[in-house]
Automatic annotation (TrEMBL):
Organism per entry: Jannaschia seosinensis
Residue stretches in coiled coil: none
Name this protein carries in UniProt: TRAP transporter solute receptor, TAXI family
Entry keyword set: Receptor, Signal
Domain of life (superkingdom): Bacteria
Keyword Phosphoprotein recorded: no
C-alpha cells in the first residue's frame, strides 16, 4: 500500500510537471504587478495574496502594488503599466464611459474582466466614546475619512452621505493612517468601502471600543435607489463588536487584466485562482465569494478577456455573449 501511494503521488507530480512544462507560454511576461489600494485595506491584503499565489504556481515574479484603488487601477491596467488590477463595478463603468477623474474623456476599454472577487460593503465606524451610534448621530461638520482619493469609498461614500443629508469635512488617506487618526481623535468617523473584515477595523477593535454603524432600512433603500449598489448584511461573525448582522449596501469587485495580455497567460492565472478556493479564503475571508458561479456579476460592464472568458465558459458553464468578449 505504501509503495502504491508513493507511486501514485509520483505519477501525480509528474503529470502536473508535464502539464506545467507544456503550457503555451508564448508572449508571457517574466514578471507582473497587481494594482491593489492602500495598505490596511482589503484590496492590498487580497491582491497581494493572489499575486503571490499566481507567482508561486506559475513560476513567475509578481506581487501587489500599492495604488489609489479602483479608479487608478483601471487607468494602470488600461495603459498596460500594470498587468492586473482590481476594481469595483461603479468605477469600472465610469472609466469605460470616459468619466475617470484621472484621465477625463479617455474611454478605458483596454481593461478586461478576469474573475469575480467579492462584494464591497459600505460601512461606517466611529469610536464608542464619540456617542455616534447611527448616521443621524453624525454631527454637522464631522471630520469623515473616506479612504484614498479616487478610491471606491472616496468616489461613492461622500455622495451617499450627501444623499442622507450629512454635512461633513472630507478627509482622505490610507486606511491604516485613517484608523490611527480616528483613534487619536483627529477624525470623528471613517466611512469604509472595503471587503470585510477590513483589517484597519479589526486592528481598531483590538486597541479600543468602536461602534460599527448600520444603515436604517429607509437609509438603505434611499442609497440603493440612487447608486449602483445592492442590499447587504455584514455578518455578526465579521467583528467582535457586532452582536447581530449590520445592515449595509455593497458593490461587486472584479479582477481585471490588460486586454492585450496573451489569452493563455490570463487563462492560466484565472485557473490558478479559481481552482484553489481554500488557499484564497486563507488569504482573506472576503474570497469566500471568489467562486466560478459569480462570473455573471460583471453584468456586461467590462469586456471579458478572451482567456478568462474561455475558462468560465469551459469550467463554469458561463453564457458569455461573443460581443462581450474583447476582440470579437
Amino acid at each position: 500500500m505504501k509503495t502504491a501511494a508513493i507511486f501514485a503521488a509520483t505519477a501525480l507530480a509528474s503529470t502536473a510537471a508535464f502539464a506545467e512544462a507544456h503550457l503555451d507560454r508564448e508572449g508571457w511576461p517574466e514578471s507582473f504587478t497587481v494594482g491593489t489600494a492602500s495598505q490596511g485595506g482589503t484590496y492590498f491584503s487580497y491582491g497581494s495574496g493572489w499575486a503571490n499565489l499566481v507567482a508561486d504556481e506559475l513560476g513567475l515574479t509578481g506581487g501587489g502594488e500599492v495604488t489609489g484603488g479602483p479608479m487608478q487601477n483601471m487607468a494602470l491596467v488600461h495603459t498596460g503599466d500594470a498587468a492586473f488590477g482590481m476594481t469595483t463595478m461603479g468605477p469600472a463603468r465610469e472609466s469605460i464611459a470616459g468619466e475617470n477623474p484621472i484621465a477625463p474623456g479617455l474611454e478605458m476599454t483596454n481593461a478586461c474582466a478576469m474573475f469575480p472577487m467579492y462584494q464591497t460593503p459600505f460601512s461606517v465606524t466611529a469610536l464608542a466614546s464619540s456617542g455616534i451610534e447611527s448616521i443621524s448621530d453624525i454631527p454637522e461638520g464631522a471630520r469623515i475619512g473616506f479612504g484614498p482619493a479616487g478610491s471606491t469609498s472616496d468616489t461613492y461614500f461622500p455622495r451617499m452621505m450627501d444623499e442622507l443629508g450629512v454635512e461633513y469635512e472630507r478627509r482622505n488617506g490610507g486606511w491604516s493612517d485613517l484608523g490611527g487618526q480616528l483613534q487619536d481623535g483627529l477624525l470623528d468617523v471613517i466611512a469604509f468601502a472595503a471587503g470585510v473584515p477590513v483589517p484597519a477595523v479589526s486592528q481598531l477593535e483590538v486597541q479600543t471600543d468602536v461602534n460599527i454603524i448600520e444603515f436604517t432600512e429607509e437609509e438603505q433603500q434611499k442609497i440603493t435607489e440612487a447608486f449602483p449598489v445592492s442590499e447587504f448584511e455584514i455578518p455578526a461573525s465579521t467583528y467582535t463588536t457586532l452582536e447581530e448582522p449590520a445592515r449595509s449596501v455593497s458593490m461587486w469587485n472584479f479582477a481585471i487584466a490588460n486586454c492585450d495580455l496573451p489569452a493563455s497567460f490570463v487563462n492560466a492565472v484565472v485557473d490558478t485562482v479559481m481552482s484553489d478556493h481554500e488557499r484564497m479564503v486563507n488569504i482573506h475571508r472576503a474570497a469566500t465569494s471568489t467562486v466560478p458561479e459569480n462570473w455573471d456579476k460583471n453584468n456586461g460592464v467590462l469586456p471579458w478577456h478572451p482567456g478568462a472568458a474561455q475558462w468560465f465558459i469551459e469550467n463554469a458553464g458561463a453564457d458569455i455573449p461573443e460581443d462581450q468578449i474583447h476582440g470579437n
